């Protein structure tokens, strides 16, 4: 499978499906843009995720979340 999508074909089976997705996607973006909650800094989110991961059993020691 080629990693570059063709500019002349769509991943959707119908034009209606593509338009439905487009409306859904635009609504999600608009909701995000209009969200007035304060943004969380990247490092704060990563610190929280590291705590969650550290609390889990070490079944996959090779899979680390190192920066």
From TrEMBL:
It comes from the Bacteria. Pfam families: PaaA2. InterPro entries: PaaA2_dom (IPR048851). Residues 16-47 form the Stability determinant domain. It comes from Janthinobacterium violaceinigrum. This is Stability determinant. The lineage of its organism: Bacteria, Pseudomonadati, Pseudomonadota, Betaproteobacteria, Burkholderiales.
């Amino acid at each position: 499978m080629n990693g570059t999508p063709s500019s002349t074909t769509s991943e959707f089976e119908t034009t209606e499906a593509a338009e439905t997705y487009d409306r859904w996607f635009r609504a999600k973006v608009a909701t995000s843009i209009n969200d007035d909650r304060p943004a969380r800094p990247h490092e704060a989110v990563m610190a929280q995720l590291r705590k969650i991961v550290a609390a889990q059993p070490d079944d996959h020691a090779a899979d680390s979340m190192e920066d």
